[in-house]
Amino acid sequence: MDFDLSDDLIAVRDGAREFAERELLPRAAASDEAEAFVEAQWKACGEAGWAGMSIPEAYGGQGLSAVATSLALAELSRACAATGVTVSVHLGLCSAALVRWGNEEQRRRYLPRLASGEWLGAYALSEAGSGSDAAALRCAATPDGAGGFVLDGSKLWITSGDHANLVVVFARTSNESKAKGITAFLVETSWPGVQPGKKEKKMGIRGSSTVEMRLDRVRVPAANVLGEVNQGFSVAMGLLDGGRIGIACQALGIAQACLEASVKYAKEREQFGQPIASFESIQWKLAEMALRIDAARLLILRAAWLKDQGRPHTREASMAKLDASRTADFCAKEAVQVHGGAGYTKEFPVERYFRDARITEIYEGTTEIQNLVIAREVLRG
């Protein structure tokens, strides 16, 4: 097995790192402090091609592999986790839905705009009564008599929902079966009846907006049904495999930033007449952080490689997401500890990393859900 990255993959990784350090890192703290959407960062991603990196070239994207996209997402998240999740959802949960389940007309209508960053994509599955139990959603889609539907209901926890132009919305088209009565729709936010609701005030990734989305008699033409009617739940679950790899990359980027900040501080901070990096207790923390980061990275690359091969990767994606998110939490906690009292202040970025890391164990399937997914795959044999 070859563990060396190809020259092309190294170029993508290094290009993303250089871009992120130039365009994202200088703006990250200010976006967090102001709880302001990463508008300038998103625009820069579009201009540099990162908004369309995994979208096929035929539709204006770069056509990067899942492995290449994962390397880039980790670098973007290392500099700004809020931008990282914005790009991850845009690509992994919206654009990918069109690539995999959209028809040619839908792809040509929407993907070029998404690839250029002119449009931002979002994904609306969760509701007040359906979080981890996604099939319990109640947002209704009623036939309009002309092949289209009228959507009524509310969605919660929608990443970029108040800035997105296109949202993949899941609604109930039949009550005969819990999971088999759901349909996926391509909803433009400019349509009458689509309104952002409450914006959540969050602990972390505050440069990424998370909002309620209200759908008040929104007319969706037949041309905007994604996939088959009543088969949307399989679309939702199929997208989550890729989405979990994306969040794993976000977690990895946060963890890497924690380690690098800790190494820098440990070399500069002196106690008892010597840098604290010379103390064994600090060295052990850095060693454990490095170990967990490398393990998480390998799990992510395995899941992404399987995705590129067109092979099943549900178990591997959940393993990568579970381990990377735990790693981010661990590294963020240890980074604050290495910094001591300084780490508890906004003077150093590890305070932000600590808050940003926490969400990675919650969204795109909680830690508990990942354990369930992995266990079911193991028991299936």
How would you describe this protein?
With 381 residues, the chain is α+β, with helices and mostly antiparallel strands. The protein has helices at 7-34, 39-48, 66-79, 81-101, 104-116, 232-268, 280-308, 314-339, 350-358, 367-380, and strands spanning 121-124, 140-143, 149-159, 166-172, 182-188, 194-199, 210-220, 225-226, 270-271, 274-275. The strands form 3 sheets. A 4-stranded mixed sheet has the order 1-4-5-8. Strands 2-3-7-6 form a 4-stranded antiparallel sheet, covered by helices on one side. A two-stranded antiparallel sheet has the order 9-10. Helix 6 (232-268) packs parallel to helix 8 (314-339). The model has no long low-confidence stretch (mean pLDDT 96).
Features:
15% strand, Butyryl-Coa Dehydrogenase, subunit A, domain 1, 4-stranded mixed sheet, 10 helices, 381 residues, Butyryl-CoA Dehydrogenase, subunit A, domain 3, Butyryl-CoA Dehydrogenase, subunit A, domain 2, alpha+beta, 4-stranded antiparallel sheet
Q: How is the CATH topology of the largest domain named?
A: Butyryl-CoA Dehydrogenase, subunit A, domain 3
**Number of discrete helical segments:** 10
* H and E order: HHHHHEEEEEEEEHEEHHHH
CATH architecture of the largest domain: Up-down Bundle
In short:
The protein is an alpha+beta fold. The chain has helices at residues 7-34, 39-48, 66-79, 81-101, 104-116, 232-268, 280-308, 314-339, 350-358, 367-380; strands at 121-124, 140-143, 149-159, 166-172, 182-188, 194-199, 210-220, 225-226, 270-271, 274-275.
